[in-house]
Every structure is written in structure tokens, then in C-alpha cells.
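Quick one, T. Sequence first:
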Amino acid sequence: MGHGPGFELPEGVVEQVLRGSSLNREISRHAGIPGGEEALGAIGILSAGRIDRFSLTREAVLMALVPRIGGERHSPHKQG
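C-alpha cells:
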């Protein structure tokens, strides 16, 4: 299991997502961006393009791989 960095969502967005809307749709609506531009992803919109969806996902995947790429010597279960 791994996860990427977290970030705070604008007020009201979480409630709409919990009611069934998508995060990208709500962030686009909050930012006043037409639905066709949802390809930026929530993080792209909130960071004004400084962080993209691919980079955020890449970091989460790398964090999930840490136990496998660190080898036996870095196992959290190894004693001594």
C-alpha cells in the first residue's frame, strides 16, 4: 500500500463528492473551468498546473513499491 502527498480541498467539494459527484467535476466547477478541461485533474487545477495528475500518481505507486525495491536489508520486519 502506498499513497501520494495530500492536499486540502476547497470548502464544499467533499460534500458533493460524497453525494456521488466526481472530484474533477467539483474542482472544475469550483474553479469555473468548463467540463471539457477536466483532463488537468484536481491537482492540476488546484496547483495552477505546477503539479500534474501523472506526477502525483507516480509518487503513490513508488511509495507502494518501497518494500519491494528496498530489498531484504530495508525490511521493516527485520530484527537487529
